[in-house]
Each structure stands twice: as C-alpha cells, then as structure tokens.
Amino acid sequence: MKITEQAVEQLALLSRLDLTAEDQTAHTKSINVILDYLDLLNKLDTSNVEPAAHVLPLKNVFREDRLQPSLAKELALANAPEEEAGAFKVPRIF
Amino acid sequence: MQLHTLLVHELSELMEKKEVSCEELTRDYLQRIGQVEDKIKAFLTVTKEEALAQARAMDEQRARGEALPPLAGIPMAINDNICTQGIKTTCASQILYNFIPPYDATAAARLKNAGAILVGKCNLDEFAMGSSTEHSAFYSTQNPFDPEAVPGGSGAAAAVAVGEAAFALGSDTGGSIRQSAAFCGVIGLKPTYGCVPRYGLISYASSLDQIGPITRDITDLALVLNTIAGRNAKDSTSASVDGPDFKKSLVNSVKGLRIGLPKEYFKTGLAPGVAAKLQEAVRKLVELGAVCEEVDMPHTEYAVPAHYIISCAEASSNLARYDGVRHGLRVEAEDVLGMFKKTRIRGFGAEVQRRIMLGTHALSTGNYEACYMKALKVRTLVKRDFERAFEKFDCLLTPTSPTTAFKIGAKAEDSLAMYQSEVFTIPVNLVGVPAMSLPFGIAEGLPVGLQLIARHFDEGTLLRVGYTLEQNTSEIRPKPGLSR
Amino acid sequence: MSRYEAVIGLEVHVELKTDTKLFCGCSTEFGQEPNTQVCPVCLGLPGGTGVLNKKVVELATKAGLALNCAIGTYTWFDRKNYYYPDLPKGFQISQVFRPIAYKGYLDIDVDGRTKRINITRAHIEEDPGKLAHAGGSIAASHTSYVDYNRSGMPLIEIVSEPEIRSGDEAKAYLEKLKAILEYTGVSDVKMEQGSLRCDANVSVRPVGTTTLGTRTEIKNMNSFRAVQQAIEYEVDRQIDVLEDGERVIQETRGWVENKGITITMRNKENPDYRCFIEPELDPIELTAEWIEGVRATIPELPDARRKRLVAEHGLPDYDAGVITSSLALAEFFDAALQKYPDAKTISNWIMGELLRLLNARNMELNEAKITPDGLASLLQLIEKGSISHKIGKEVFETMFEEGQEPEQIVKEKGLSQISDEGQLARIIEEVIAKNPKSVADFQSGKKQAIGFLVGQVMKATKGQANPGVVNTMLQEKLGK
Ligand SMILES: [Zn+2]
Fold first, then answer.
1. Closest CA relative to residue B46, chosen from B57, B56, B35
2. Which residues contact C330 (CB under 8 A, 6 or more apart)?
3. Among the listed ranges B219-233, B452-466, C138-152, C256-270, which one has the minimum average pLDDT value?
4. B253: which of A10, B184, C52, C89 is 20 to 30 A away, CA to CA?
5. CB contact under 8 A, C43 and A71
6. How many B-C residue pairs are in contact by the CB < 8 A criterion?
C-alpha cells in the first residue's frame, strides 16, 4: 500500500492542513514508511472475524430527558478567538 | 521536614494528626518545584497562587473544626490533556496554547472534592502522540535519572519521581502512563477502559484513552483510585458499576496466584538488563507462592499496526474540532476554508499532522474496509488472545517496555520507532484491560518497569501483586539521583 | 404530454420534541439568546463526552412505527466527518450504517387515487448550530456569526425512495408526513421554526426508461409550497437542459424564493465523510417487547381517523381528508361533535368558514380564538332559529377574532332573530302600506311578488327577522 504525493495533497485538504510543497514531500515519505509497516496486517486472514469498535460490551447507556445547567454565556464565549454580540465570529464562508 | 519525599498516605496521616498544615505542605512542594523544575521541566503550568489559596481555605476549614476530606492538602499534578476549570489546559499543543476550560474533568473534580491540591499541569507529547515528550509544542521533560534520557510520554511520572507532586493523573492511549512510570521509577496504572470517567480528558483516540494514577507506592495507588474510579453520568463509556474499595486489595500474598508470561513479550528486542530484572521478578513471585507459566499470545505483533490505524483514525476525527472558531489558536484568513487550513497547519506539530492524515487515509472511501475495518477485526483477534490467556491465568506479567528510557533524540525523527517503543503496552489499550507498571530495580542506571495485566475490572489483582512485591523486595522504590 | 418523467426523493429533517438535547442536558427551547444553551458537549469543547437521551430513542422509534417502518433492534451511532463553522466537533453524530427505522411507507392522495411512497430509512442525528450572515446572504457577507444553541438538538432524518413524480406529490407527501408526526406527538413540525426541513433530490428521465438521470439536490426551501415550486422549476430546468442536448450536472442547488428559481451553490470539493462507528457511544439494543410497548402509545393516525369519520359520521371522504390532515383540526371537529351531534354541519363550517378565515389570515388553528364548544353553541343558536345562517357567519368571524361566546355576541350586537309576531306585525303593516304595487301583483295571482315583500321586511329588520315567520304572516295578511 503506497500513497502518492497527489493523494497526500487530497488528504491534507480533507484534513484542512495548509501543507507546503516541502511538507507534502516529507509527509508522503514518512507516511509511506508507516503504510509499508501497516501492510503487516494483511498477513492475517480476518474474513470471518467480527470488528470490535468498542472494548467493553456496553449497550443502552441512556440518560433521562432532564435539564442540566448550561454554561454561563460569558464562559461559553470565553475562549472564542473572535466574538461579537454573543456569537462566535468567522470570516466569510465562500 | 522534607515533606516531598513522603507518600500520600504518610502525608495524610500527618494531616490527620495536625502535625502539618495544608499551606506548609503545599509550600514544601512548591519549593521543591522551584528547586528542580529548571532541569526536569515536568510542568507546563505551575498553579502556585491557586494552590496556596486552596490550601489556606482548607486550613481555615480545619481551624473551624470541620472534618477534612480524605486527600486533604495532598499536592497533585495533572497531565495537561485533562481539563481543569479556570486553569490553562493546552495538550502541549500550539492549537490550545491559550485554552482555559470552563469545566473540570470528572476525575479532576473528584480529586479536588477529596481535598487534593493541584500544583501544576504536566507536559506531554502534543495530544499525547508520542512516548518521550519530544513532541510537546513547548519543551521536553527530562528523565530524573538521566538528563540525556526521555521521561516517557508524560511529565507526570517525572514530577512524582522527583517529589514535585505526591501523585499525578496521567492519560494512557498506548502506554503513556505505564511507560513513563517505568522510565521514571514510579507506579503507573492504566485502569480498565471505563473504570475512570473520560469526561474532560481531551480525546486523542476515544476507544483507547484512559485516565489513570501515577504514585510512589501501591497504598497511594489504591487511595487515588478509590477517589477517581466509578460511574459518571456524563460519560457513555464509563462502566455502570461503582468501583470496589481498592484498599481491600492491599493483601500481602500471591500464594496460588496463576501468572502468565506471554512468550511473545520475551522474544527478541528485549534489552538484557530488562530481561534479567524480569527473570528476577518471576523468581521472586514463584518464591512467594505464585505459579508462573508461559502463555501463547500469537497476535501480539499485530497489535501495534492495528492500534496505529485505530488511534490515527479516531484522532483524525477527534482533532477536527480545532478549527479556530470556538477556542484556541486562530490564524486569520479571507475565508473560512483558509482560516481552517492556516490555523491547523500552524497549530499542530508535524507528528500530529502526520497522524491526522494517516487516520484520514484509513477512513477515506476506498481504504475504509482494507484499513480501518481490518484493524478493528485484528483488534478482535488480539482480544481473543487475552480472553484465552485469562481462562488460565489470573494475571499476566511482561516488561513494560523492551528497554529502559531511551536517549533524547534517539527516536524523535523516527515516527515508527517511537510508536513501537510502546509495543508491550499497546495491546492492553486495544483490549481495554487494566495494566500497571511497577518499578523493579535498576539496569545500567535506569529504572526497569514490570507490567502486570489483569482481566477487565480486576484492578484488585494488580494491586495485590504489586503490594506483595512491595512488601517483600527492596526493588520497588528506586530513588532518582535528583531526589536527594 | 411531456416526454420526460420526474424522479424525486425527499430528505426531511424533523426536530424531536424533547426537553433536552441529544447528548447533553442543555435546553432545546426555541428562540433564546445566542449561545446560552450550550455546554462542553454541544459546544464541542475539548474533553466533552455525551450520553444519549432516552426520550430520543423512544420518539424516533415511535415515528418509525407510525411511518410503517421496521425498527432496528441493534443500532448504533456513527460519525460523519466534515468541516463547517456551525459543526462544533468537526463531525456530526448520525446513524449512517444502521438506522433506527427502515423500510416504511406512507400513502398520499393524488388526483383522487392513493399512491404509496416508500420510505428508505429514518435515522437519529444531531443538528448543527446556526449561522447568521452579516450581509444577509451567505454569498454576499464577509462575516458570519455562529450560535450553537441549536447544536446537538435531536433530529430524525426521514429519507423517501425516489418515487415522487411531481411537485404536487411532494407537497402531498410532506403534508401527510407532517400530519403523521404531529398526530404521533414526536415533533412540533413547525417549518417556520426549523423543526421540519426538507431537501429534494430531483432528476428527470425519458418516459418509459428505468435508469436514473443525473440528480441535483435542492435546498433552502422554507415552506411546502416552496418545495412544490422549487421541484416544478427544477424539473422544467432539467428538461430544458436535456432538450438543448446538454447534460445535467450533479450538484447542490439553492431555491431563491423571491425569484422563483434554483441556483448553483458553490461547492469546492467532493465530500468524503469518512464515516465510522462513534467510539464514544455504545450501541442501542431494543427488544421486541420494548418496541411493542412504544407501538401501544401511538394514537389513531390520519388515515384511520379519516376512515372513521366517513364510516361513523357519514362524512364525505373529501371532507374527512381535509379535517384529518391536521391533528388540531381533527380534534376541533371531534370536540365540536361532542356538543353538537351533526357531523356534516360541523364539517361544513370547518371546511367553509374556519379554513377560509385561517387561510385568509395565514394563521394556525391554535392562534384563532374560536373554540369547538363555541362553534357548537353557535350551531345550536342557528338551529333554534335565534339567529339566521347569515348572521351566524358574522358571529363566527367575531368568535374567531375575539373569542366570546356566541350568545354574548348576539346579545351585545343585537343580532337575535325576530320571531315575535307582535313585533313583526307592525313592520309588515308598514311594508304593505309602502308597496301597494307588489301587494296588488300578489293579490292578482303573481305569487312570486311575495319574495320582494319578505325582502323588504328583512331589510327593515337588518336581516334579523325570521324569514319563515314573515312569509307565513304576509300570506295570512294578504289573504293567500
Ligand atoms: Zn449542551
């Protein structure tokens, strides 16, 4: 399993990382070293094995529909890089 | 009095007898921090003022004749990926360089309510991605035994080892608690997944992350675990049972206990000094009446690659919330896309970027089955290895790490080698069972760690074996050169 | 007839009626100050982990059952990963792989026939926050503002099979869906408050073919009428594109209400949502017993109620359909019927006056002041002859606007019908005296002349005279 620089470019976009051309080359190289290693898994036949997304056999962990206090508005906004009129401010979307 | 060399339960006793005030205790630890922190750099934030204020408040409470909670006045350190209300929590990342949580992690809140006093937030690899603190965005922590060696993936163990805190809370996704405990000569427990609520632990890999205690002896471990374990209404993955009283597990006997020695952990790559100490520990346990036998765990070598994929996949998603909108770093740009990309490239270090992209790759259309699902299936196979072993054995004994603390710089540029340094601790996270690293003597000047692994929710057996070894050998509490 | 047929599937997002959000205890109340109903979980703060609201599972199951769906006995949550400022965690928690409900259907009326639209799935997911744009529109503004009060609100997304063939059918589907969800009590289904939202997938193909054409996804429709119009526009647009020998481009288009057109929404990349099982939440296992328990709580649904109104009360099917299309209307009907047991008369007043006034004032029934008891009293007054049918309508409007009892209105405005012969005799005398020609006409055999005379009496009494009594009295007076 090898990955091209173009594929890394696509991964960077999907991950919202503004990679420079140099970063891209470096990451492609190091990611390929790891992917080579991960190929080890293909030695195993897992065709009849169930996947395990969780480690504990928990299910139906519910909470009642009861109100809990929300954060005070000042605390909710305290970490905002930019705030205006009680809202989180962002630059234009498109 | 050299209070910082004392154990949690010894300090508690002094507090109870009113031989020391909270403020004295806190000042002693703060002074110790002032003494050694220049070299060790275990902390990202030292909370001097808050700690003193809290200590004074507790002294006043005592002066009024009110009963004090069980850990009253005990100075503690908390890893900087565990949220503490009003106190900067950075995950050792630029992207959270200024983040002040408006809430406490459940484990932190429980300790606070039990009277423990936070003296500082500990360094770690950025988002806990690493095993040496070399990937911290701010600086590296030093190993207290050797200024040229790494302390493991968290500064918390180093802080406890040199007496900057009486105990600490760390996090363990692939072995950070246990490996750093082993490298620094202290005790580190990764509890069963779900034993300690994860609410407030900044996620790296949600299905693998656990909060756990780092202490200097087993009694302390039981005390801290009693405080932090148990169900929490805010964490869906926290177990539905309340923890038992772990002090009841402080039993000085391993008679008849069946201990498995997984063959795959004793194969090539084990440093001779570590191997020798392991043999010694096995002999001691047999001498104390335990039955030690080898056991096959054939999928061990696949645990690291499976863990790699799962942790990166989950991380790629967990770290998507760092986008410059609600908290942390923002790099301005014309539009939102530009802001996201610039913020994240500036905010994350290279190792974190690499893991995000690897995880994105593993989950993307076309790779999902072959990569991510494959890893989840391999996880099942590793789980079965453990289930089979636990049919026969009460616990497993392995080295915590193939080597003692490696040199600073030795693996910093080699992502894969760094990851593989946790080869013996990683399978435990994949399966969610509890495991503890116990210091067992010194090899070539550095502490060696034993790893004990038990069934889900059987932390008690780990404490029992640890306690027995502690009572019957002198190997358990190595003192780093710095501590004198 | 067109050579093309439209292939339409609808994705409807419905907010479930809970007190708290999907994974945290923050309030779901609408219209509060921005960012005052948020916590570490729904604000996506580092370290926030949530726990599933049990009520959501119940309501989603209930909705699924009401839509004739099978209920998944083993389901879980997944993450759908994408970046957008209103999405605080950088992923949306949804049910991608195993929806809680699947394979259902609902029946709609099209041109007097019943058509079945199959429902692919209904799954639980969380709502993102809300963006406001400084320049009004997303494209025109250089700054946007995010309010996360809505973030983490519980939704179900109901996905239909592409079996809808026109804007009319789409509207009928939405109306039926809304009625069912309203009857079931799982949602407020208020489109204007965003508790019901609809996107449409639209494609066209030559009649007689079965392969699907390239589809577009239409967004930003704020009413059922808009959905209908947007679909009609988009179908025509796609046919024009094909007729011009060009290709339909697969894209997302936005409905521009004031221009009545759909336009391309800018889209920079192909989404790859990288969905995977949510590791922080556990699976949901539902037993057959539990599911049946939920089924038992489902009230009578619109179709059944409509049939009952026809069978038990002899209403025309059309009337029954209109009355049961909204729970409020159906309940109004039932309540009025309790007090005034003439179904057809009540139906006539609901279909006539009530709906006319609601439509004219663009109001919901609960905003009108008239009560079912009030309507029943009004009908009794008319039946007793205390007021005429015509005056009744006037009184109805007053009740609709101001909500008094009909007796009171009649009394205050002096509208009661005059049946008292003594009182009428005087007026009749006057009318006879003033209209000798009509009197002569009548007496010479032109029987229809009496109508004019009755009219004059009515006029003199401002419509309050009882026309039947007047007629009889005139005939007697004028010697038949
Ligand atoms: Zn919330």
1. B35
2. C302, C305, C323, C324
3. C256-270
4. B184
5. yes
6. 111
| Alpha carbon distances (Å) from A84 to A89, B98, C216 | 6, 19, 36
Residue spans per domain, chain C: 4-291, 302-413, 421-477
Predicted confidence (pLDDT) per residue in A10-61, tens digit: 999 999 999 999 999 999 999 999 999 999 999 999 999 999 999 988 899 9
User: B325 and C46 in contact by Cβ < 8 A?
Assistant: no
The pLDDT value recorded for residue C238 is 97
Best CA proximity match to C393, nearest among C363, C349, C435: C349
Q: Do B102 and A33 touch (CB under 8 A)?
A: no
CB contact C55 to A (< 8 Å): yes
User: For the segment B18-44, what is each residue's pLDDT rounded down to a tens digit?
Assistant: 999 999 999 999 999 999 999 999 999
Question: With contacts defined as CB-CB under 8 Å, which chain B residues touch C91?
Answer: 317, 320
- Chain B residues within an 8 Å CB radius of A92: 334-336
Residue A88 Cα to chain centre, angstroms: 22
Q: Which residue has the higher pLDDT, C387 or B329?
A: B329
Sheet arrangement for strand C101-110: C70-71, C101-110, C113-126, C154-160, C4-15, C196-206, C216-221, C251-256, C261-264
Q: Is the pLDDT of residue B234 over 80?
A: no
Residue B84 has, within 13 A of its CA and on its CB side, a CA count of: 28
How far is C-alpha B106 from the chain's CA centre? 16
Q: Does A42 touch chain C (CB under 8 A)?
A: no
Looking at residue B474, its pLDDT comes to 81
Best-predicted range by mean pLDDT (B261-270, B336-345, C348-357, C445-454)? B336-345
Cα of C40 to ligand 1 centre, how many Å? Answer: 6
* Residue A47, pLDDT score: 93
Q: Cβ distance C469 to C419 under 8 Å?
A: yes
Mean pLDDT over residues B233-247, rounded?
A: 73
- Confidence check: pLDDT of C310 > 60: yes
- Residues from chain C contacting residue B91 (CB–CB below 8 Å): 46
Q: Is C52 on the interface with A (CB under 8 A)?
A: yes
Nearest Cα residue in chain B from A9: B357
Separation of C32 CA from ligand 1 center, angstroms?
Answer: 14
Which one of B84, B236, B356, B380 would you mutate to disrupt binding with C, by most C Cβ within 10 Å of its Cβ? B236
Which chain C positions have a beta carbon within 8 Å of A85's beta carbon? 34, 145
The chain-wide mean pLDDT, for chain B, equals 95
pLDDT category at B370 given cuts 50, 70, 90 is very high
Task: Indicate the average pLDDT of chain C.
Answer: 91
Give alpha helix (H) positions in C218-342. 224-243, 288-295, 302-313, 317-324, 327-339
Give the CATH number of domain C421-477; options: 3.60.10.10, 3.40.50.1220, 1.10.10.410, 1.10.530.10. Answer: 1.10.10.410
Question: C-alpha angle B359/B82/B166, rounded to 5°?
Answer: 130
**d(C-alpha B348, C-alpha B346), whole Å:** 6
Task: Tell me the CA–centroid distance for residue C25 and ligand 1, in Å.
Answer: 6
Q: Distance (Å, rounded) from C-alpha B294 to C-alpha B259? A: 9
Q: What is the CATH number of domain B3-251?
A: 3.90.1300.10
Interface size, chain A vs chain C, as Cβ–Cβ contacts under 8 Å: 124
Tell me which of B368 and C1 has the higher pLDDT. Answer: B368
- Return the percentage of chain C with pLDDT > 70, whole number: 98
In the reported structure, the alpha carbon of residue A69 is separated from the centroid of ligand 1 by a whole-number distance in angstroms of: 9
| pTM assigned to the model | 0.91
Tokens of residue C268, six digits: 């920079």
pLDDT at B484 > cutoff 50: no
Point out the residue among A54, A60, A90 whose CB comes nearest to the CB of C284: A60
